[in-house]
Amino acid sequence: LLHINDSRLLNTLDELSEIGATSQGGVTRLCLSDDEVEAKRYIIELMKRAGLEVHVDPVANVIGVLNSAAETKLVACGSHVDTVIDGGRYDGSYGVLAAIEALRSFKESEIKLGHPLAAIAFANEEGVRFPAMVGSKYATGLITLKDVFALRGTDGATFEEALTKSKLELESDSFLAKHIPGTYLELHIEQGPVLENEGKQIGIVENIVGTRQIEVGIHGSADHAGTTPMDARKDALLFASKIIQFVNKLSLELGKGSVGTIGFLEVTPNAPNVIPGEVRLIIDFRNSSANIIDLASSKLNEMVKDTANKDRVQISIRQRADLPPADMTDSIASLIQEITDDLGLTWRRMQSGAGHDAMIMRRIADTGMIFVPSKRGKSHSPMEETAGDDLIHGANVLANTLMKISK
Ligand code: HGY
Ligand code: MN
Ligand code: MN
């Protein structure tokens, strides 16, 4: 069994966490922000130090390749280095750094590998600024470069403008389209309380729930808060509050693991004595069943349109992101389980309530995910924390599973 270099992995985690660090101990690295670009440059450097052949594709996926001369199917692993606003230091970053550490350890121990291997930092997994999973969707041919370039961020910039501003040197063609991975493995923190509650060291993911994001623009009328009678108002925020209540009620009513969130809300002009004229909000609905997601989506569309008429406001409504539920590959889950047993670690099979690039990669490759425990189940928060030995265990499970597949 191979053991990765513990202190080196933890050291790179500390170094990467400095980039985009916030005062509360969290990290903010939105897609193609200066901080995320700096993180990508750090990853490029680290891959070079690890002796990998580095490729940066047209949407700024960063790919480090080992044993590239081998003619057999690529074995890929990785995650993302972009984060949410004031998120944690492990979400995504841990999987990328452990992937690089695994390949670096293979190279150092001169293990005979029968396949080329790639460690990947996918572009824009989180979808805070631009709609989610652009990197893996492009890498798997789900979205064209033209469509990626045209994506508009919540700040109004297009993906293309942000790429140009980043000054990242990009290759002209998609490395992963030319070298389609036969297998993809992703190591990630659980971002929930299950492993900690059950005292298990490793999570073997069986399925990832689906996510549907719907963006609603509400166009009322900005008027004077003092002189406008209550029955003459077109109050966009009042209408938004009905949508927020409805999303919560619908999620509770649909049950079966449904979760509905409105985390993005923009009020214009956002002044205490002006009736809100414009509101923009994004609904995030999730469920492990595509049918329930479709049902929720149609009920939301119906409610928004009906209520808009009553409230005399204009609305624009569009699907912002659609990430269908994905089952992981059984044979990969069994292999992860076998390796975890060999390493003498405890495990349990489980669902992922968080989305991951693995749900997209599953469309073209045999795919598996490995989880390590999150303290108090916290994530997408500066409180995100995972114990050092759990981080090492997860990296060893990833490395040994990769080695078994790549022999
Ligand atoms: O939102 C998610 O589930 C993931 O963190 N992108
Ligand atoms: Mn993540
Ligand atoms: Mn995340």
Protein model, in words:
Helix 3 links the parallel strand 3 (74-80) and strand 4. The chain has 407 residues and is α/β, with parallel strands linked by helices. 37% of the residues lie in helices and 24% in strands. The strands form three sheets. Strands 1, 2, 3, 4, 5, 6, 13, 14 and 15 form a nine-stranded mixed β-sheet that branches. A four-stranded antiparallel β-sheet has the order 9-11-7-12, covered by helices on one side. The protein has helices at residues 6-18, 34-49, 93-108, 134-139, 145-150, 159-166, 175-178, 194-198, 236-254, 290-310, 330-342, 358-361, 388-406, and strands at residues 53-56, 62-66, 74-80, 117-122, 181-189, 202-208, 210-219, 223-224, 259-268, 274-275, 278-287, 314-323, 326-327, 347-352, 366-372. The site of (2S)-amino(hydroxy)ethanoic acid has 5 residues, from loops.
